[in-house]
Amino acid sequence: MQEFLDFEASVEELEGKIAELRALAQNDASVSIADEVKSLEAKVQKLLNELYADLDPWQKAKVARHINRPHALDYINTLITDFVPLAGDRKFGEDEAVVGGLGRFQGQGIVVIGQEKGSDTQSKLKHNWGMARPEGYRKAVRLMELADRFGLPVLTLVDTSGAYPGVEAEERGQAEAIARSTDCCLSLGVPLISVIIGEGGSGGAIAIATGNTVLMLEHAIYSVISPEGAASILWRDAARAKDAAAALKMTAQDLKKLGVIDEIIPEPPGGAQRHVEKTISNVGEAVARNLQAFAGVSKDVLRTQRREKFLGMGRGL
Question: Is it true that domain 61-311 has CATH number 3.30.1330.10?
Answer without folding.
Answer: no
